[in-house]
Amino acid sequence: MQTHAHQLTPGEHAKPVWIVDDDRSIRWVLEKALAREGIAYKTFATAREVLQALQQSQPQVLVSDIRMPGESGLALLNDVKQQFPQIPVIIMTAYSDLDSAVSAFQGGAFEYLPKPFDVDYAIALIRRASAEVPMSPGEAAALPDAPDMLGQAPAMQEVFRAIGRLSQSHVTVLITGESGTGKELVARALHRHSPRAGGPFVAINTAAIPKDLLESELFGHERGAFTGAQSSRRGRFEQSDGGTLFLDEIGDMPPDLQVRLLRVLADGEYYRVGGHAPLRANVRIIAATHQNLDERVRQGLFREDLLHRLNVVRLRLPPLRERAEDIGPLARHFLQKSARDLAVEPKVLSDAALRVLTAFSFQGNVRQLENICHWLTVMAPGVRIEVADLPPELKPGSAADMESNWQQALDRELAQALARGERAIGERLEKEFEKTLILRALQHTSGRRMEAAQWLGWGRNTLTRKIQELKLDPDKR
Predict the structure, then answer these.
(1) For residues 261-292, b (16+ Cβ closer than 10 Å) or e, as one string?
(2) CATH number of the domain to which 267 belongs
């Protein structure tokens, strides 16, 4: 055990913060940050050392890595919460998968901190944990063999945190996001990590069922309720009794069924079509849509009172183009999955092929990436996937590539500059953008400035001024 006590400044907590991580560099970074802030600390390399020290004293906050030699951070979390439930525990991990996040929250963790983390954020989190009373722990769920969702992007980490926080809740959830972002995966994860996990998970796409059949699909019908109803039938609400009902593409639900759904959410009761006996809805509702429901409310296409009922907690799934750092891990996951399904050796992406994938816009999002990986597993000739093996729509120079690559490149450059802490990034990018416009227009007009200005929609004086400001010498290109 490495124990360090820093002199407290007035107003700080009397108890030290404990850090446990087998990585010496992580301990060192947090030690320096805590010392700079005047916060007392002790550091440990293993969970066993922490458990021994707990018999003598307790920390104000415990910050633990999740994967260490010997006992894991989750096991330590469980031990600490059983003996000292009042101690806030922050779990750190470099393994950014959903199940770690959910397990941490269900085990009673105060927060989930993915590595690499911002030191200032970590210190702020420690201060918040010191000041707040932690929630009582839930029961830790058994980890499945493989994560059902992956994501290191900050937006996905927020989704994972939300699923963890909701793991002991029954509240209605509205999931928004473009088609193919994995809304049903999130709904299934919310169910699997909920108190209703032992009950059924029933999904229905309200946009895929004809309007005249949707009511019967949702609520069931009695025999003779309409022509062709030869026997009574249980609807999706009955089928999901005690579990979760996932209503996908809720924005396309017809107005009259919106009224019936609103009544179920308000009263907890419904009737089969043609029925007279009320049925109790013991169901948790999770809804999803790719549409802007607020806009549909303004257009009179969606009931505002139903939106308020559904929108207790809203989760936004980011499109894949906003989480480029996840494309590589997701592609490897899907290639391995396809190889298992087809009983073949997994294909491996070359660095060049991965760069092309990462630069692609993926209008179909994660679903499109999964389909591409399945295509590659079947069609790529060798184990190693090169750029030439990629499907035509991905190859540089394709129509789809040309349409969106400049915007993606701009977006990536902006994201990287912000991550570096670069200031006045807009000014730099604006100058580079105008420089590109000017040089290309002049090339197109063989250097004729008046004509180039007309193509760009500028006056000649504007073009001349910008050339001087940008210190361009187009005659020496």
Answers:
(1) bbebbeeeebbbbeeeeebebebbbbbbbbee
(2) 3.40.50.300
